[in-house]
Specification:
The protein is α+β, with helices and mostly antiparallel strands and 285 residues long. It contains ten helices and 14 strands. The protein has helices spanning 16-26, 39-44, 81-86, 90-93, 95-102, 107-110, 115-120, 128-134, 234-238, 251-283, and strands at residues 9-11, 31-33, 52-55, 66-69, 72-76, 138-143, 146-151, 156-158, 161-162, 169-176, 182-189, 200-207, 211-217, 224-229.
C-alpha cells in the first residue's frame, strides 16, 4: 500500500458513546490507539496508513485497573503489562500470566503495551495469549448495539484476525478463579534474551484433579490450548502444533523444541501445584 502523504485525523473521545460515533464515522480503516506499541511501529515503517487514529486513553468507561468481580479477576482494557507484573494478587493464582507479561518487549514497552491490545493484534506469537488460554480467560466485548462474552479460544481466527465485528472493542478480560489447587508456568524459546519474539511458547496449568491444560504460541496460525489428563503422553499433546518456517526458526526446529519447552513448563507447574497443596495439608493435620 502506498503512503498517501495525508496525515490521519487524531481523535480523543471521552466516552464509549463518542468512541462508537468516531468508529462509525471513519469506518473500518480507522485504528484504535491504546498503548501504540504496535500501531506506531507499523506506521513508522510504512505498513499502516489509517485515515483516523482513535485514542482510547480518555474513554471513561474503559478501565485501567485489575479488580475482583464475581469469582474472577477482571483486567480492564487499558491495563498495561506493568500493571499485571506489579499486581499483588495475580501471582497467587495466575503466576504464568505474570511470567508472560515480564517478557513482553522492554521495560518501556511493558509500561505502554496493554493486555487487550496484545490480544487484539492476534499475533500467533503473542506472549500473554498462551497463559490466558491455559487459565480459561474470557473476553468481554462491547459495541453500540450491546455486549457479549466469549472464551479467549474463540476470539482468535488466524494471524492478525479476531472475531471482533465492525464497531466492536474489547472492554475487559476475565480470569476465573480456579475451583481447586492449581500450578501454572510459562516458558518460551527465543533467539536472544529480551525483546525478541518467541520461537516457541508454552503455558501449562496443572490441576489437582489431574487435568492438564497446555497452551501454545508461535507453533500454529493462532495460539491454541489442549486439555489432557495427567497420564496423557506429551507427544500426543504437542502433535496438535503445526509450525511453519520463518525468519526466526524453521518448522523442524520448532517441532523438535516444543516438547522440550513443554516438559520444562509442566515440571514447574507440577512443583507449584504441590506447593499450593501444602498449606491445606498442614491445616488438616
Amino acid at each position: 500500500m502506498a503512503n498517501t502523504g495525508v496525515r490521519p485525523q487524531y481523535l480523543r473521545p471521552q466516552s464509549l458513546a463518542e468512541l462508537f460515533a468516531c468508529m462509525r464515522e471513519h469506518g473500518p480503516g480507522a485504528r484504535l490507539l491504546a498503548g501504540g506499541t504496535d500501531l506506531v511501529v507499523r506506521m513508522k515503517k510504512g505498513y499502516a496508513f489509517p485515515p483516523a487514529i482513535i485514542d482510547l486513553k480518555r474513554v471513561s468507561e474503559l478501565r485501567a485497573d485489575i479488580t475482583e468481580r464475581d469469582g474472577c479477576v477482571r483486567i480492564g482494557a487499558r491495563a498495561v503489562m506493568t500493571d499485571l507484573i506489579e499486581n499483588k494478587s495475580l501471582p497467587q493464582h495466575f503466576p504464568a500470566l505474570v511470567e508472560a507479561a515480564l517478557v513482553v518487549g522492554s521495560v518501556q514497552i511493558r509500561n505502554r503495551a496493554t493486555l487487550a491490545g496484545n490480544l487484539c493484534n492476534a499475533s500467533p506469537a503473542a506472549d500473554t495469549a498462551p497463559a490466558l488460554l491455559a487459565h480459561g480467560a474470557l473476553v468481554n466485548l462491547v459495541s453500540d448495539t450491546g455486549s457479549r462474552q466469549l472464551a479467549l479460544g474463540d476470539f482468535f481466527i488466524g494471524p492478525g484476525r479476531t472475531v471482533l465485528a465492525p464497531g466492536e472493542i474489547v472492554e475487559s478480560i476475565d480470569l476465573p478463579h480456579p475451583a481447586e489447587p492449581t500450578g501454572g508456568a510459562f516458558g518460551r524459546l527465543t533467539r536472544r534474551h529480551g525483546v525478541d519474539l518467541a520461537i516457541v511458547s508454552v503455558c501449562c496449568v496443572a490441576r489437582a484433579s489431574g487435568e492438564r491444560r497446555f497452551a501454545f504460541g508461535a507453533v500454529g496460525p493462532r495460539p491454541f490450548v489442549v486439555t489432557t489428563r495427567q497420564d496423557s503422553p506429551l507427544d500426543d499433546v504437542v502433535a496438535h502444533a503445526s509450525p511453519i518456517s520463518d525468519l526466526r526458526a524453521g518448522a523442524d526446529y520448532r517441532r523438535a523444541m516444543l516438547p522440550v519447552v513443554a516438559r520444562r513448563t509442566l515440571s514447574t507447574a507440577m512443583q507449584r501445584l504441590q506447593a499450593s497443596r501444602e498449606p491445606r495439608s498442614r491445616d488438616n493435620t
